[in-house]
Amino acid sequence: MADMGDMDAFTSRLDPDMCVVTAAAGGERAGCLVGFASQCSLRPVRFVVWLSEVNRTYRVARSAQFLAVHLLAREQVELAEIFGGRTGDDGVDKFRDVRWRKGHGGAVVLQDTEAWFVGRVVGQAGGGDHIGFVLDPVEWGALEGPGGPLLRLSDARDIEPGHPVG
């Protein structure tokens, strides 16, 4: 088995867009900052978000029929901190200080993000310590105008994870 430091030569060069994934099920809401997400099919359009198994959002998402995925503007580091640096396990209400509404199927849609979509969960895939939720988009939107640069991993590196990394 190769030393993981060898793989860092590749992964340290990546700078993916970050997104916030929200889930609602069984009377609970949860959300987290995610760096592992991508479109995974053209026809039909599908998107996959990878949630850490130690994250509360993963536990809520397992029972959710719909998840919402939100792109943040580069200057929305404070919003990223709410969903990336706070844990809901200790009673923190991440949604208290943000504008949100119910979307399709009861999904939690954050209102002040660059762009968002709600997706029906159509599958899950194991991937190590994260589980991929494959989503079929059913509702979407974006702020007016051309939009600016999106929040990337390099913009969020100073956010201390709200749950154990591993």
Short description:
By secondary structure, the protein is an alpha+beta fold.
Describe the structure.
Keywords: Oxidoreductase. GO terms for molecular function: FMN binding; riboflavin reductase (NADPH) activity. It comes from Streptomyces spinoverrucosus. This is Oxidoreductase. The mean pLDDT is 91. The chain is an alpha+beta fold and 166 residues long. The protein has a single domain, classed as Electron Transport, Fmn-binding Protein, Chain A (Pnp Oxidase, Chain A). The longest helix is centred in the middle third of the chain and has 9 residues. The protein is built from four helices and nine strands. The chain is globular, with a radius of gyration of 15 Å. The strands form two sheets. It has a seven-stranded antiparallel sheet. The protein has a two-stranded antiparallel sheet with strand order 6-7.
**Which sequence of strands runs across the widest sheet?**
2-1-5-8-9-4-3
In what range is the share of β-strand residues?
Answer: 35-45%
Q: What is CATH's topology name?
A: Pnp Oxidase, Chain A
Please provide the ordered H/E string of secondary-structure elements: HEEEEHEHEEEEH
Portion of residues within helices: 10-25%
**What is the total domain count?**
1
CATH class: Mainly Beta
Q: What's the β-strand tally? A: 9
Distance between the termini: 19 Å
Mean pLDDT: 91
Report the uncertain regions.
none
CATH homologous superfamily assignment: Electron Transport, Fmn-binding Protein, Chain A
Number of alpha- plus pi-helical segments: 4
Apparent shape: globular
Taking all Cα atoms into account, the compactness measure Rg is 15 Å
**What is the CATH architecture descriptor?**
Roll
Backbone structural class:
alpha+beta
Biggest pleated sheet: 7 strands, antiparallel
Protein name: Oxidoreductase
GO molecular function: FMN binding; riboflavin reductase (NADPH) activity
Organism: Streptomyces spinoverrucosus
InterPro entries: Flavin_Rdtase-like_dom, NADH-dep_flavin_reductase, Split_barrel_FMN-bd
